[in-house]
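QA checklist item 7 of 12: single-chain prediction sanity check.
[x] sequence parsed
[x] length recorded as 131
[x] structure emitted
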Amino acid sequence: MRSPIVLGWLAFFIISCGSDKRIPEDVLPEEKMGTVLFEIGMGEAMLEYYVFRDSTVNRDSSLRSELDKVLQVHQLSQEDFRRSFEYYKARPALMKVMMDTVYARSQRSQEKLYGKRPKGRRPQVDTTQKK
């Protein structure tokens, strides 16, 4: 008698904890959302480096303008982006994988631009470890 109950609960947990990889049609696929987030991050970095050095520039309007440009390039409305962002934000496991991918892409871009390590710099050694 006890075995069917345990098996029933086990089946319930396996089914309920299983990952549903299907993304609703009104949500951007992970790859496209990752690309959009990467380009938004690149736009923000450009603003930080070049534009925001001028203290008279309105940060909010500049950021909004850059976001609008990225969304326009990808033919997305703000509502499409918000809906997709909220979907991924509510699913931390999916968001983490996507943001890790965006981070890795940014690191590859940086390495491509600047090289893996500036010449003449030696790797730092952890001097706190005993030999």
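[x] summary fact logged: Residues 92-114 form the longest helix (23 residues).
[ ] second reviewer sign-off
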